[in-house]
Design brief:
With about 425 residues, the chain is an alpha/beta fold. The protein is built from 17 helices and 12 strands. Strand 1, helix 3 and strand 2 form a beta-alpha-beta unit.
């Protein structure tokens, strides 16, 4: 399972970060002459969010520079200039491994602002999802290239903030890459090109799934302050968006990608059977309606002892012909694909910056996250919800359009903080 893969990767990265830093500074012999001729190019990088995913993203960013040096002789150097986290000690521990002075390792609600003010070229974001909209806005306003993890937000106002900030990034010529790493895998890109070029005809329907065993803590949290919410963010809807948003977003992104659209409506159900910690559901089942009458079944579950399946499956109009020839070029043909898609996404970001050909995935990940939020709220309320009323038309259904989870990210800076309670879940049919 991907969760197990991520845990193994974290253990590996913790022991090899120093070696990756050193390796990122020079290419192997086959690219050395080209690199020396081209001259070194240095990128200053700041990390916001120093948990396991953030530390992993930073190490993968450095490995991506090494990959580009080895493959293309780009002679890139990465300098980590600042770290930021809600917990100052975590920021300091992470920064120490990369030679960042303690005075540039920031903690607290405004730590992200201080890290951006240091003056990085690129900002990497691995903080809890609730914080991403304001942090992303700040980075784009400051003219920084951004890698940010999925999901991009936890509620409809957050989605709109991400889309608007992404549009400003495009106007400024900034690069934005999201942590939906399947978009940076060779196999998924091949299938996307086949679909675009008509190899299978129309997509008639399909299913997407992230069903796996139980993960995260399952003992009561009983939060007494914001530290508890930030420490155990995975189990709180207000911080993570629930697992349909935080995890299943990957599979929903594939449906959007292959159908070249977001869903227009969602009708779903779900509930909580095993959890006692936090306020998330254990499972969701959602019918997603796409344009032209296409339906995709979305399902996700985190319960031990059940059948597991993580993937995407589509019904096509016809079979791929044996003599099929591509017309759509591979978008990453020159830079290629690292064997680890987590590294590829950073390699594609760095390559786009170097070549001055901006890549912008803000809308993609916002659409995928938006689909997940729409499915979540349909399950929570027991009602059919449309994209138009949740994201586009404030007059259509104001309660849905303006739905904001509390505490919101800005509340952590300004207060007050509304603390959720263990087991205080949404009951279908009881809330609008």
């Amino acid at each position: 399972m991907e969760h197990d893969r991520e845990l193994s990767r974290r253990r590996f990265l913790k022991g090899t970060a120093a070696a990756v830093v050193a390796g990122a500074l020079a290419g192997l012999p086959n690219g050395r002459a080209m690199a020396q001729a081209a001259g070194k190019r240095t990128f200053k990088v700041a990390l916001i969010g120093c948990g396991g995913r953030g530390r992993g993203a930073l190490a993968q960013h450095l490995e991506a520079a090494k990959y580009l040096n080895d493959k293309l002789g780009l002679n890139l150097e990465i300098q980590v200039v600042a770290t930021a986290d809600w917990f100052a000690g975590r920021a300091q521990d992470t920064g120490k491994g990369y030679g960042v002075p303690v005075e540039r390792c920031f903690g607290g609600a405004d730590a992200y602002k201080k890290a951006i003010e240091v003056g990085p070229d690129i900002v990497l974001m691995g903080q809890p999802p609730a914080f991403r909209p304001p942090h992303f806005e700040a980075a784009i306003a400051a003219g920084k290239h951004v890698f940010f993890e999925k999901p991009s937000a936890v509620d409809p106002p957050g989605i709109r903030r991400i889309i608007q900030a992404g549009e400003r990034a495009q106007q400024k010529g900034l690069c934005v890459v999201a942590g939906t790493q399947r978009r940076h895998e060779s196999g998924y890109n091949t299938r996307a090109r086949e679909i675009r070029d008509g190899a299978y005809g129309r997509i008639l329907g399909g299913r997407v799934s992230w069903c796996q065993g139980a993960i995260f803590r399952n003992t009561p949290v009983n939060p007494t302050g914001p530290d508890d919410l930030c420490r155990d963010w995975h189990v709180w809807v207000e911080m993570s968006g629930d697992h349909i948003v935080e995890q299943h977003v990957h599979n929903l992104d594939i449906a959007n990608w292959f159908l070249d659209s977001h869903p227009v409506a969602a009708t779903g159900f779900g509930f909580r059977a095993r959890r006692v910690a936090g306020n998330m559901y254990d499972f969701f089942s959602v019918d997603l309606e796409y344009p032209n009458g296409i339906h995709i079944h979305s399902m996700c579950r985190q319960i031990a002892g059940c059948s597991d399946w993580v993937g995407e499956d589509f019904t096509f109009e016809k079979a791929r012909p044996g003599d099929f020839k591509f017309q759509t070029p591979d978008p990453y043909e020159e830079v290629g694909y690292h064997r680890d898609a987590y590294v590829s996404e950073h390699a594609h970001l760095l390559y786009a910056i170097v070549k001055g050909k901006p890549i912008n995935e803000a809308r993609n990940v916002a659409w995928a996250t938006g689909a997940a939020i729409m499915g979540r709220e349909s399950a929570y309320t027991g009602k059919r919800i449309t994209w138009q009323e949740m994201y586009d038309d404030p007059a259509k259904n104001p309660a849905v359009y303006n739905l904001q989870l509390k505490p919101a990210a800005d509340d952590f800076e300004t207060g007050p903080i509304t603390l959720p309670k263990d087991g205080d879940i949404r009951i279908p049919g009881q809330r609008a």
